Amino acid sequence: MMNILSPSILSADFSKLGEQIKEADQAGAQYIHIDVMDGMFVPSISYGMPVIKSVRGVTSKTFDVHLMIMDPIRYVKDFVDSGADIITFHLEAAQDPKAVIDEIHKYGKKAGISIKPGTDASALDEYLDMVDMILVMTVEPGFGGQKLIPECAHKVRTVRGMLEAKKLKTDIEVDGGIYVENVSQLLEAGANVIVSGSGVFKGDIQYNVKRFLDILGN
Ligand code: DX5
Ligand code: ZN
Description:
Layout: E1 4-7, H1 17-26, E2 31-37, H2 49-56, E3 62-68, H3 76-82, E4 86-90, H4 97-106, E5 110-115, E6 133-137, H5 152-165, E7 171-175, H6 183-189, E8 193-196, H7 198-201, H8 205-216
Parallel strand pairs: 1-8, 2-3, 3-4, 4-5, 5-6, 6-7, 7-8
The structure holds D-xylitol-5-phosphate and zinc ion (ZN).
Active site: 35, 175
Pathway: Carbohydrate degradation
Organism: Butyrivibrio hungatei
């Protein structure tokens, strides 16, 4: 299973967003993680379709869009049209998660489902064979720069076990508080798509990406 780095642009300098995405791209990051917040599902508001559209032209890397919004089915088409390749929504925010997955697949995009730290892994069970990726949050969603909640590594292990029991090789993404210093425990637990915001965009972007990729070691 391929390990992937998905730098979260939430920690980028938005006055140079295009250039910073290019730096992450050139250093070898495979995905670009784009956090969309609605001020309802999470307290903060980040950015939406126009921003995604405007940076779609600067890279051909996979746009990994993480929707932290209520009732995400309403906006699937808009994010597809903006250039999303993977659309991940929160189980807690959807009235009918299967309908959201079907809507994403209808447009030929990859569907991810996410759970917050307080949601039990078992809540994912009925969706495991429908999705392309599972996002296990390692902080409370809403802000960059938080500290990783250590128990979340255990949840990753549980989800990997649930997938293996069904003979599924689905990607597991982890997001929040991840740095080169603590990423190994998540890889060992079974995660293979690594999001990092502060760990990539604070400081030397190219250097940070390369250090992560050394550890991810494909
Ligand atoms: C948090 C977002 C994360 C965030 C990660 O709600 O989903 O993607 O940008 O940032 P760091 O790596 O700084 O915790
Ligand atoms: Zn995210």
